[in-house]
Design brief:
alpha+beta, globular
Length: about 180
């Protein structure tokens, strides 16, 4: 790609180095470039160090297996993974279900996928239900990091097409 990275679905040290460099080149993919450009120019009062810390913690868990009801550090379900990342980045939050996190009133609700920012907690329904059944952490560029049986545990997945695009319900902005 334009940044000299190969597509392997893993956000390793080389990908992180490029993502956080000042000369990262925009890809030609169909991801949300609008949200990517607003992220870099955003100057919210909270700063990005909290988001960066949570995303870094999340990346250290890539490859850990999915296990229903688990909150780490050896395995996770989706909400247990979010809880682990929040807790270890200094956010005071209880261990909730994905539906529980989607209802936390002190965090702003984002309903437009094009308004997402890195660090937002993104939540989804299943194909057969309208209630929240999955949660992950938005990384930017149409991708999230999450724990799911379909990804064999903690992995980075695209939200730009397929299951996650079709079932996106909203997000919570923690930072």
């Amino acid at each position: 790609d334009a940044n000299g990275l190969s597509v392997d679905g893993v956000v390793g040290k080389d990908t992180r180095r490029v993502l956080y460099s000042n000369d990262v080149k925009k890809g030609s993919g169909s991801g949300s470039s609008e949200s990517a450009s607003s992220e870099s120019s955003s100057s919210s009062g909270t700063g990005n160090s909290d988001v960066d810390r949570m995303i870094e913690i999340a990346h250290t868990q890539i490859g850990k297996p999915y296990s229903y009801g688990s909150s780490g550090p050896n395995s996770y379900d989706c909400s247990g993974f979010v809880y682990y990342c929040l807790k270890n980045s200094g956010v005071a939050a209880s261990r909730l279900s994905s539906a529980g996190y989607s209802g936390v009133s002190r965090w702003d609700t984002i309903t437009n996928v094009n308004s997402l920012q890195a660090g937002d907690l993104v939540y989804f329904k299943s194909d057969k239900s309208s209630s929240v059944s999955h949660i992950g952490i938005y990384l930017g560029g149409g991708s999230m990091i999450h724990s799911a049986p379909s990804s064999n545990g903690v992995a980075v997945s695209s939200m730009s097409s397929g299951y996650y695009a079709r079932n996106f319900l909203g997000a919570k902005r923690v930072f």
